[in-house]
Specification:
Elements (H helix, E strand, L loop, with lengths): L3 H14 L5 E6 L9 H8 L4 E7 L2 E6 L3 E6 L4 E6 L24 E7 L4 E6 L5 E6 L7 H4 L12 H9 L6 H6 L9 H10 L13 H20 L18 H4 L18 E5 L2 E5 L11
Antiparallel strand pairs: 1-6, 2-3, 3-4, 4-8, 5-7, 6-7, 9-10
Helix pairs in contact: 1-7, 6-7
This protein binds a DNA duplex through loops.
DNA sequence: CACTTGACCTGTCCGC
DNA sequence: TGCGGACAGGTCAAGT
């Protein structure tokens, strides 16, 4: 479930760990990682030095000094875990609740070996994620990036832009609208539920029926909740870990997500779970009433 | 065209 | 205990 805050947490870790390291070997499973790219992997990845690590939406870009970038999407269960040369950094004695043991393991899809004998593992239990090698200056031309809307946390992403984008999807539910990566890039199921709760909006409300006041609250809430999550290292349900194999703690602070049956922190009504936009959806049925303009 | 649903995968949990 | 089925949820293709 890596969404913007989780991917950003990974980016922060990798941006500290990877620059300057030189790739000497890349081993990968078949199919989804580097499909038909063997030759460019050999030419543009092996021997390359990592320059920076960037994020756009829920995707990461590891820029190399060869003019190419490794583009990674973690989808549901992807992990990018770094291990130093000793390989003991997160072993016994380390004060972490790392979920990740010996690597590679059976979920490892790609291993990058660096010259100093450190390694980067791309693990992905469900194999939905992907890793591609793309010319850096052509990254934005990739179909995935062409479709992305503005960065949810960008300073210049204004409420007016948010409102206009949501209204392009006015016929669908507000939850489906904010999950649409062409409306804004980065929101996933967790932060959609948390943002809608904070803004007191029922997720099944038609997007075009949400009042301007509530839309404004939603815009603020989504950004606040994701910023808070980044500061807490993201949300770890099962699979998600950061670049050093550590969990995030945001879910401890989540108000409704995965809290069905518990009391609403505002009004003590029992939180319920329903299905909206084809996703598991958590609401307080009292705080989030449908079809009421306010 | 606008929107919804199913497929992609694997592991886990729930009910019988 | 074993087993089928639902579920997890990001994105794209296919369906309505």
């Amino acid at each position: 479930m890596p969404e913007l805050p989780e991917v950003e947490t990974v980016r922060i870790g990798l941006a500290r760990l990877l620059p300057g390291r030189v790739v000497v070997r890349a081993t990968h499973d078949t199919a989804k990682s580097f499909p038909n790219e063997s030759r460019s992997v050999e030419k543009h990845l092996i021997g390359a030095t990592v320059i920076t690590v960037r994020r756009r939406g829920k995707a990461l870009m590891i820029d190399l000094d060869t003019g190419y970038s490794l583009v990674v999407h973690l989808k549901m269960t992807g992990q990018l875990v770094f291990r130093d040369a000793v390989g003991e950094r997160f072993g016994a004695g380390h004060p972490t609740d790392s979920l990740v043991g010996e690597l590679p393991d059976r979920s490892t899809r790609v291993t990058l070996d660096f010259q100093d004998e450190s390694k980067l593992f791309f693990n992905d239990q469900r194999k939905f994620g992907w890793m591609k090698l793309v010319q850096t200056e052509l990254v934005e031309q990739e179909p995935f990036f062409l479709k992305l809307g503005p960065e949810a946390l960008a300073d210049d992403f204004t409420f007016e832009q948010f409102r206009a984008a949501v209204l392009r999807r006015k016929g669908t539910t507000i939850k489906a609208a904010i999950l649409d990566q062409s409306v804004l890039a980065g929101v996933g199921n967790i932060y959609a539920d948390e943002g809608l709760f904070a803004a007191r909006i029922h997720p099944a409300t038609r997007a075009g029926d949400v009042s301007t006041l509530k839309l404004k609250r939603l815009y603020r809430a989504l950004r606040e909740v994701m910023r808070l999550s980044i500061s807490l290292g993201g949300s770890s349900d099962k699979n998600y870990v950061d670049a050093e194999g550590r969990k995030g703690s945001y879910l401890t602070f989540a108000k409704v997500f995965r809290r069905e049956g518990q009391d609403c922190p505002v009004c003590s009504t029992k939180i319920i779970k329903l299905r909206v936009a084809g996703r598991g959806t958590h609401i307080c049925p009292r705080c989030q009433k449908q079809g009421r303009l306010s």
